[in-house]
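JOB MANIFEST
job_type = single_chain_structure
chain_count = 1
residues = 178
[input]
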Amino acid sequence: MTEAARVLALLAERGHTLAVAESLTGGLVAAELTSVPGASAVFRGSVTAYATPLKHELLGVDPDLLAARGAVDPEVALQMAAGVRDRLGADWGIATTGVAGPDLQDGQPVGTVYVAVAGPAATDARAGKVAALRLNGDRAEIRRESVRSVLELLRGELPANARAQDTEHDGENGCLQP
């Protein structure tokens, strides 16, 4: 079973949904998730905000934060995850931002990546979890490892939350019945 399949199964067990915000991965996280049959029961959608201004315009990342620190920043990753969760109406949001190369970005070296998770317990953009990665390899390897890492981070956060909920869903948002 792939990491994407494991994550989707855990979310389905709980009747939870997922949204994805991507920068350096350019849609690879969404592609990995949607390669799993039945993903539509859990996966709400994604936003690929590759250009820095789109992180603010589409995901609600603080423009002052982007101006001060650039897009490759742990707080930016957290705000991306919370923003996509809120804008797409999901229980969970995950995000990737970083430098895949070949050049530096925002003064950050190639291989600097931040992946983040914002879950249902998160009440603001500062809540959630972020992991800082220092990855080696070429552009494709850095992007692949970023996908694996964000899915692994999400999977690690799921056991910390309640097991399958007793809450009923009306099916509007694609949730499976717990």
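[summary]
Residues 41 and 72 are 31 Å apart (CA to CA).
The mean pLDDT is 89.
exit_status = 0
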